[in-house]
Structure formats: C-alpha cells, structure tokens
Amino acid sequence: SPASLGWRPTDMPRKRPGPLACGQCDFTTNVEGKLRLHQRCHAAGRRTFRCSLCRTAFTTKATLMRHMRMHTGERPFRCHFCSKAFVDGGHLTRHLRTHTGERPFGCPLCEATFKRKDHVTVHLRTHSVQLASI
C-alpha cells in the first residue's frame, strides 16, 4: 500500500492553476522555486548580473553566462552518439538517456521508471486517481 511505502497524499505534486508572477517586474513562471530564485535579484543589496543585449537580470554569473549562449548560438555540450549540441550540460545529460535507455527516476508507489524526473510527477497523478477510487 502507499502508506507502507512511506508515501502520504501530501507528497502528491500539485499543478498550479496558472503562471506565477513577480510583483516587481514582468517575470512569470509556473515553477515556484524559479520564482523564489528570480526574486532574489530584487533583494536589497543583492548583486545582479545583467545581460548587455536584452537587459535580463540574473542572480549568478553562471546563469548569465548560460543565458548569453542563447544570444551567441554557442552550444558547447555535444552528444558523442549523434553530435547534437546543447547550451546546457543538464540538457545533454537528459538527451543521452535517449541513447543509453537509462531510466534513473523511479515511482515510489510502483515499479515504473522514467528518463526524466518530471515524468514521475505526471505518472504519480495516475496513482492519485487510483487512490481516490479506493
């Protein structure tokens, strides 16, 4: 049972009804953590890193550098299987799973495994439907 696995109904990811907006600028996102990270750039005395081309502000230099690759077209992370290139190393890691078949993310309620963590979140909703009918 879900309870025997240490799972609680409160562990179920909840879908937001709409985009979350920053109260100080026009930034929006569907991810609460991204909004909190963004809002750090508005904190008093917080150093920001601003794109010289589009004026977008970032809280870390690394994030700005990754953003700059969008403007320059630089894609330094290349797949050794098919030569597809990516702006971000995390995107390459995710892509490599299409070649290796690796499925590192498992459902805590059944044996299902997935290539992406967000696919587990979507899958967990099937269990909420099953649990609601019990």
UniProtKB/TrEMBL annotation:
Keywords, comma-separated and alphabetical = DNA-binding, Metal-binding, Nucleus, Repeat, Transcription, Transcription regulation, Zinc, Zinc-finger
State if Oxidoreductase is listed as a keyword.
no
Q: Does the keyword Hydrolase apply?
A: no
Q: Which InterPro entries match?
A: Znf_C2H2_sf, Znf_C2H2_type
Q: What is this protein called?
A: Putative c2h2-type zn-finger protein
Q: Which positions fall inside the C2H2-type domain?
A: 49-76, 77-104, 105-132
- Coiled coil located at which positions? none
In Pfam terms, one family for this protein is zf-C2H2
